[in-house]
Design goal:
The protein is mainly α and 247 residues long. It has one domain. Helix content is 53%, strand content 4%. The protein is built from eleven helices and four strands; from the N terminus they run H-H-H-E-H-H-H-H-H-E-H-E-H-E-H. A two-stranded antiparallel sheet has the order 1-4.
Length: 247
Amino acid sequence: MRFLKHEEIIKKSERINQSYEVDPGFFDQIVDDLLDSGKETESVILEGFERLLSEVDQEIERMEDFAAMKPNCFMGCAFCCYFPIVITKLEAKLLFKSIEQFSEERREKIFKHWDTYFPAQEKKLQEALSMDYEDPDTKLAYKRLNLPCPMLDPETQLCMAYEVRPIPCRTYLNYSDPQVCADHDMPKEPFSYEFLYSFYFSSINELIQALYENGEDVFVDYPMDAWQYDYLPAWIQKYREGEFYEI
């Protein structure tokens, strides 16, 4: 099998930047459909959360088709599950609400995993969560801690909340030899689509804002939750303390 070289990936990314235009209409249509659906508010928000996340995946596939690129990431490769994941409190609340909707077996497996994860990783977590996530050097320093994401199943090396995993988990893809991820903390070959975050987040914000302005109970502190950022493990710690929806 032939893998793309770094120079080829750069050229294809340049072609995307110069010639490809993201159509926000795909995201807008999801919001419009849900606001017109007549469903209960919580269902509208959680379905919107999942569908808009999924739309990011589909947009990436459209760009890959445009540039003739195919990722070589494979099931069980957890390389990017050791990077820092920073999300808003709004996204964290939607993630936890979604997990609460999982089957009891699946939900309890996650909670049980957290019961062992946080004590076992306490020392690394203290160091990781003290890092300034706005510092450009933090990503490498965090990665070198070898701290797995709290959502990573240690047995299967798969995400336990895959369909609602955050944007950073979806937008980091390798089109080269997968070995580069095994050999380097931060290989130059993988390509990031994090610029799609603005399309996703503006849409989820639009959805919740419309419901909020209509007087619906949106179960978040809007708009404050949309502008509070922290590491995913930090939000999970607060959630486990039982005070998350009050803080």
